[in-house]
Design brief:
The protein has about 600 residues and is of the alpha/beta class. The chain is built from 25 helices and 17 strands. The strands form 4 sheets. Strands 11, 12, 13, 14, 15, 16 and 17 form a 7-stranded mixed sheet that branches. Strands 2-1-3-4-6 form a 5-stranded parallel sheet, sandwiched between helices. The chain has a 3-stranded antiparallel sheet with strand order 8-9-10. A hairpin with a 3-residue loop joins β9 and β10 (about 375-380). The radius of gyration is 28 Å and the shape is globular.
Length: about 600
């Protein structure tokens, strides 16, 4: 059931209760968690925070806490499956779900007792009406059958001709009811197929939680900054459309203006530990304020693909670009913080002017920046890259929970050192992605398989361990498809989706297979691989594994029967399967999509 009044129907209900907080491992969920934690601390709400990386974690966490807790808050997990069927809870357990994954499972929508959905109603959800998908006609059939048979026995003393005419009438009525039921079921299947065939993302969970804080007049600048990071995570990882991003940016900009105006006259507005959020029309260059400008240009997807930096001509074009800007190479190659102030003052305008000459007319994008005191300045995208790198850190053999806590800590302004550590990891990840993309393009690893493009990273590829993680592989796949579109002359290949495989676990002999839709700036970010991956796995009996929250209820409901479980990222779709099943799975996929 959708919650209409989030304060009255959610917060006022849990404020005097003990709450289990189950949080998915993505940056938007971390930000929503930080906001809710701050609210709970204000009102001294007792809660237990449990990071959950997938369905197994969620099931285990629920089993461990169901005796102690009646109220469960799920962030970015659980909305797209029939949660009651999945977890089998007691009747007094209540689930509040704040989740961006779409589509919402219809059983969750129409359960008004145990499932409470904290989802913005102005999102275009397109949920089918209750009468189109639920029908209680078993009792009617039994009553009708009973009535018919009763009349039949009562009329046994009647002439046989009359009884035969009555039997024919009852039979016709039964046939008509069965026909109507079949038509209704066929229409229901069609409606559910149309509703569930694409997966996408809705409004950021962090923004939903910030609106709760705002309604309660308990919103702070920290909470506002976390909601900005949550939205920026959706943009960085290409989960929402550009129009949705700009619309939500405008909403947050109003809150930023309100907070900045409110603090204008405060005496501590210039204190060394103050926090100031500002709207920026900044460059699409990753981490450039914490890197050298040259490194950022080389390792940012936007500029690297436009210049085709994997080629000699691309390198020459980059040098021409730098010359056109009139910036000394010594300045460009040193750390941004060490550049001359005279250069940094109008750097963005200089870069934009030269970028326009090279066809990069949208090198600047709407975003937000933050100042912590006088020294530390970060863009929202910097924090997203840093937190994602900490969340999927493969350099140290640490548990997913340890990485979750570190990523959560880096969002606090009291942990600037950890944030800088995350930025260093993000630089390494972006370099690895750029080098892998260049290698794949130059060695022609991207193959056209008919209805889609395919690329397989072999074991032994540099940094291949990094790409066993979903967020890193997603960034690589999107970067690679964009680079391929810029490099190929085949017009047909430019409109094909990309499927990519990378080693997942060498000991278990599994690969992670990811699919993304065709490259397009106007894409609605809806993914169509879900159904195709499901059918291909079922038809070939491929041994697949799922342990991620991005999956439709249709897929999850068949887990017990087929053991096919899927990972998906709305604008991407991922499964994990055995190495030896990869060939037949891809063959089935080609047949299905041809």
């Amino acid at each position: 059931m959708f919650v209409a009044d989030i304060r009255k129907e959610f917060y006022d209900v849990v404020v005097n209760q003990r709450v289990a907080l189950l949080v998915s491992s993505d940056i938007d969920a971390l930000c929503a968690c930080k906001i809710l934690q701050a609210l709970f601390h204000c009102d001294q709400v007792q809660y237990t925070l449990v990071p959950v990386t997938g369905w197994q974690d969620l099931g285990t966490a629920f089993l461990e806490h169901k005796e102690q807790y009646q109220y469960f808050v799920l962030i970015n997990c659980g909305v797209n499956v029939d949660l009651l069927e999945t977890l089998q809870p007691e009747e007094d357990s209540i689930f509040f779900i704040c989740d961006t994954h779409r589509p919402v499972d219809v059983v969750n929508v129409y359960n008004d007792t145990q499932i409470k959905l904290l989802i913005k109603q102005d999102d275009d959800l397109g949920v089918p009406s209750y009468d189109d998908i639920f029908r209680d006609d078993e009792g009617e059939d039994e009553d009708a059958d009973g009535g018919d048979s009763g009349n039949e026995s009562d009329g046994s003393s009647e002439p046989s001709g009359k009884r035969r005419r009555f039997d024919e009438g009852a039979l016709e009525r039964r046939i008509e009811r069965q026909r109507a039921k079949r038509e209704w079921e066929a229409r229901r299947r069609e409606i559910l197929f149309d509703y569930e065939q694409y997966e996408y993302h809705g409004t950021s969970a962090a923004m939903v939680m910030f609106e709760l804080a705002w309604v309660m007049t308990k919103d702070t600048k920290d909470m506002l900054w976390w909601s900005v990071i949550g939205l920026t995570d959706q943009w960085v990882h290409d989960k929402i459309t550009h129009m949705k991003y700009v619309t939500d940016i405008a909403t947050l900009q109003r809150h930023v203006s309100r907070h900045n105006h409110r603090n204008e006259d405060e005496e501590n507005s210039l204190s060394i530990d103050c926090m100031r959020i500002s709207f920026e029309y900044d460059l699409r260059l990753a981490l450039y304020q914490h890197w050298s400008l040259y490194e950022s240009i080389c390792n940012s997807c936007y500029t690297s693909c436009n210049f085709k930096l994997w080629s000699m001509n691309g390198q020459k074009k980059l040098q021409e670009f730098l010359a056109d800007m009139g910036l000394p190479l010594k300045q460009v190659r040193q750390k941004f913080n060490s550049m001359d102030m005279s250069i940094k003052e109008n750097l963005r305008e200089v870069i934009e002017e030269s970028a326009n000459k090279f066809g990069m007319r949208d090198i600047r994008v709407q975003t937000f920046g933050v100042h912590f005191g006088f020294k530390n300045r970060f863009l929202a995208s910097d924090v997203v890259h840093a937190a994602a790198s900490l969340l999927e850190n493969v350099e140290k053999d640490e548990s997913a929970t340890d990485n979750f806590i570190k990523a959560l800590d880096c969002l606090s302004r009291s942990n600037i050192e950890r944030l800088h550590l995350g930025i260093d990891l993000a630089k390494k990840k972006l370099k690895a992605i750029q080098q892998t993309v260049a290698s794949c393009i130059c060695t022609n690893l991207i193959l056209s398989q008919g209805p889609f493009l395919y690329c397989h990273l072999l074991e032994g590829t540099p940094d291949v361990k990094l790409f066993s993680k979903p967020l890193a592989l997603t960034l690589l796949c999107k970067y690679l498809l964009k680079a391929f579109v810029f490099s190929t002359r085949n017009k047909r290949c430019k409109v094909l989706p990309l499927i990519m495989a990378a080693p997942r676990d060498v000991e278990k002999g599994t690969v992670i297979v990811l699919g993304i839709p065709p490259e397009s700036e106007t894409s609605d970010k809806k993914n169509f691989f879900g159904r195709a991956f499901e059918k291909a796995a079922e038809s070939t009996s491929s041994r697949t594994l799922h342990d991620h929250f991005d999956t439709s209820s249709k897929l999850h409901s068949c887990v017990g029967k087929s053991q096919n479980l899927f990972l998906s990222f709305a604008s991407t779709y991922v499964i994990e399967l055995k190495m030896e099943d990869r060939g037949k799975f891809l063959d089935a996929l080609i047949t299905l999509l041809s």
